[in-house]
Amino acid sequence: MPPAKPHVPPLLRTAAALAWRLLVVGAAVYAGFAVLGRFHEIGVGLFLGLVATALLRPVADLVTRGGVPRGLAVAVTLLGGIALVLAVLALVGEAVAGQTTTLTREFREGLDSIEEWLERPPFRLNPEVLTDVQSRIGQYLSRHRSTVVSTAVSGASHLVHVLAVLALALFTAVFFIHSGHRQWAWFCDQLPGPERSRWDTAGRAAWRTFTGYTHGIVLVAATNAVLVGVALYFLGVPLAVPLALLEFFAAFVPLVGSPVALAVAAVVALAAKGPLVAAIVIGLIVIIGQIEGHLLHPLVMSWAVRLHPLVVAISVLAGATAAGIVGAVVAVPLVSVVWSVRTALRPPPGPPPGKTAGENTQGGSGEPEPP
After folding, report:
1. What is residue 365's predicted lDDT score, i.e. its pLDDT?
2. Are residues 164 and 217 located together in one domain of the fold?
3. pTM score of the predicted model
């Protein structure tokens, strides 16, 4: 008589099956991040190329429809975009150079006023404590001067990597804008016949979501930057243009970037203009956060990205943990694209009772082609 098999409870059997599957998925995700970490410059270059394509391809199409050859239209569009970026950077550099002396003087006067403010009620801090803090900061900088210099030198050595990433982004953007749809069609033709339709559907859904997110986040960032720049200018806060540009780039990190940039503006306002203006800037943080969260994101991006705010927050935190600032920027569009592909490839639900499948179909997808 064969020995009886040990009885395994169904709950334990299900938990074990889920556990080893989770281990396999976790190992695959870890391996993917490890590969991306080894070749992150390539990933960043391709991502920037796709962003440039999403922003500039409609412009190139418009120029082409005006009778300009496609190659010339792509060249004019890219050169115009580069010229715009360089003009903004030159404007920021001129603003910083023109206000350096004034900002230094206002910072010194602001720090003195902050010390006097902290010495009065209700804080009543000992002046010796503040003096000791200043001396400790000076001693720390003098002791770690060599470390700061070496860090700056090592940062300068990364300039070659940055230029290589930008060159890759420009190179890929040229081909994606000029004939990205033909490249995608060629890729799909290399696949087995039954898989071509699924990959084409997935690519269209991914590109539709990515372009929608890119256009939406750029519009939200530009709106925030204009609001911040105008408010800081009328408040008399120095470096209003650079702080507005910082707000523009910080808005690409959802939920986190904009408050951090405005906190920097509040510190500048506190040192240069005093507590009252800093309090107004802090109020500006709350107002712009409400406008962004309850007006701009729902109106501009809800049609392209349908993610719960909790999913967005977890994605940003996971991306920042895995790859720093770049990961925080890439996380939300990556999760959005994956979710849109999953939704596009999911089998449609069956027709409701009393209707045939043909009554629920629509003619033509109307989806944009991948780059």
Report:
1. 43
2. no
3. 0.72
pLDDT in tens, 118-161: 666 666 666 665 566 556 655 655 665 555 555 555 555 567 77
For residues 238 and 283, the answer to whether their CB atoms sit within 8 Å is no
Helices 193-235, 309-345: crossing angle, 10 deg rounding: 150
Phi then psi for 187, rounded to 5 degrees? Answer: -60, -45
- Whether residues 271 and 166 share a domain: the answer is no
Tell me: pLDDT of 327 over 50. yes
Q: How many domains does the chain have?
A: 2
At residue 77, the pLDDT reads 92
State mean pLDDT over 218-223. 87
* Residue 153 within a domain: no
Which of 151, 181, 211 is the last residue in one of the domains?
A: 181
Contact 334, 214 (CB under 8 A): no
Say yes or no to pLDDT of 115 above 80: no
> Looking at the domain assignment, is residue 249 inside a domain?
yes
Residue 255 shares a structural domain with residue 313? yes
Nearest to 50 by CA among 161, 230, 274, 206: 206
Question: Do 207 and 332 fall within a single domain?
Answer: yes
CB-based contact 251:227 (threshold 8 Å): no
Cβ pair 289, 258 in contact under 8 A: yes
Q: Which domain holds residue 305?
A: 191-347
Q: Answer yes or no: do 166 and 229 share one domain.
A: no
Q: Does residue 126 fall inside a structural domain?
A: no
* Residue 191 confidence (pLDDT): 83
Query: pLDDT-derived band of residue 9, with 50, 70 and 90 as boundaries?
Result: confident
On whether both 90 and 224 belong to a single domain, the answer is no
Dihedral angle sign, alpha carbons of residues 96, 97, 100, 101: negative
Distance between CA atoms of 33 and 299, rounded to whole angstroms?
33
Same structural domain for residues 214 and 175? no
Residue 32 domain-assigned? Answer: no
269-282: pLDDT as tens digits: 877 777 788 888 88
Q: Which amino acid is at 124?
A: R
- Which CB contacts under 8 angstroms, 24+ apart, belong to 226-234? 227/288, 227/291, 228/261, 228/262, 228/265, 228/284, 228/288, 231/281, 231/284, 232/265, 232/269, 232/281
Same domain, 44 and 176: yes
